[in-house]
Write a structure and sequence with these properties.
Elements: H1 3-18, E1 25-29, H2 37-51, E2 56-60, E3 75-79, E4 82-86, H3 90-102, E5 108-116, H4 121-131, E6 136-140, H5 143-152, E7 157-160, H6 170-174, E8 184-187, E9 207-209, H7 219-233, H8 240-269, E10 273-276, H9 279-287, E11 291-294, H10 301-310, E12 316-318
Parallel strand pairs: 1-2, 1-3, 3-5, 4-5, 5-6, 6-7, 8-9, 8-10, 10-11, 11-12
């Protein structure tokens, strides 16, 4: 299958699974106010999807700026997708569980996630909390995660849905395609999900790197970084936490997201071929019509996603070593 056809197929699959579940009003929370550009790519895909359906996004917040407002029962709560369901990044899961407990009457939809637990005792604990909610949908973005959720969260509504990054608007992506540079990139993550791979003998003299960092250090940037701390310290002051949170959310949506998205796309656009162990470096490369070889990460999510959705593409394959 050609990549253009695959993108259309995955977008249609997302719409088919999710469009009828989201009501006329929603909030989008747990957004990535940090420099993981892959999560920002998911965020943009979520927004572009919501723009394509008949819904009004009343609020967009991170876990640090979400102050648990009163919501009407007909407001859907949308939890940001990614790769943090489980205990690898436990603070995100704890926030997710707190929202589920705080809003028992609202429909809650978790956008597509990969699943991973190191501590197996937490699986039953999480399942007990999540299963108490009567109108909650968990979306898995690969077959392995889907099967895991079906087996361990049997009382929950589980859906298999492609990663939301495939819904990023094609008009934006078109500006970063067709850069024939002849260069290749070994894109290796440097966090706890990495599995070492050695390219010291690479004869093509490829570039090496992880996601680039953005260089701004504005007042807005510092509020993004330390805003949740400031909000917690001012909780006793009337209206002040809400003012801070509102400012941060506005800055994140009007500036932060766009600047990071452009940074990610312009970085990948420099190369014709990419070898990577980051899922969203792989996905963004495909969205920009690049050739990709992937090496799996610690949790196996690249292989799982490839086998679920991408194995019929000629432009992507597992790396040899």
């Amino acid at each position: 299958m050609k990549i253009e056809e695959k993108i259309k197929f995955l977008k249609a699959k997302i719409s088919q699974q999710l469009q009828h579940l989201i009501g006329k009003k929603c909030i989008l929370i747990d957004l990535p106010y940090y420099d993981n550009l892959g999560d920002v790519l998911i965020w943009q895909g979520e927004l572009d999807f919501l723009k394509s359906i008949d819904t009004s996004v009343l609020q967009s917040s991170s876990s640090g700026t979400f102050l648990y407002p009163k919501l009407t029962d007909d407001t859907s709560i949308l939890l940001h997708g990614g790769g943090n369901f489980g205990d690898l990044y436990r603070n995100f899961q704890d926030f997710r569980l707190s929202v589920i407990k705080a809003y028992p009457k609202n429909r809650i939809i978790m956008f597509p996630q990969s699943v991973w637990y190191n501590d197996k005792s937490l699986i039953r604990k999480d399942a007990e909390i999540i299963s108490q909610h009567s109108d909650l949908y968990l979306c898995a973005r690969d077959k392995w995660s889907y099967d895991f959720l079906i087996s361990n969260f049997p009382k929950c509504k589980i859906l298999l849905v492609p990663d939301m990054a495939f819904y990023v608007n094609d008009n934006f992506l078109a500006h970063y395609r067709n850069y024939n540079t002849g260069k290749s990139l070994h894109f290796k993550r440097i966090d706890k999900e990495s599995v070492f791979f050695n390219n010291a003998n690479d004869e093509n003299k490829s570039d090496y790197g992880d996601w680039p960092k953005y260089g701004d250090r504005t007042i807005g940037f510092n509020l993004m970084s330390y805003g949740s701390v400031l909000i917690n310290k001012t909780k006793s002051l009337i209206f002040i936490p809400n003012v801070i949170a509102t400012f941060i959310d506005a800055y994140a949506n009007k500036y932060w997201r766009n600047s990071r998205l452009k940074l990610a796309a312009s970085y990948i656009a420099q190369y014709d071929t990419i070898t990577t162990d980051r899922l969203h470096a792989m996905i963004l490369s495909l969205l920009l019509h690049k050739s990709v070889e992937f090496k799996d990460n610690y949790t196996g999510k690249l292989k799982a996603y490839y086998e679920t959705w991408l194995s019929d593409l000629d432009c992507i394959k597992p790396a040899n070593n």
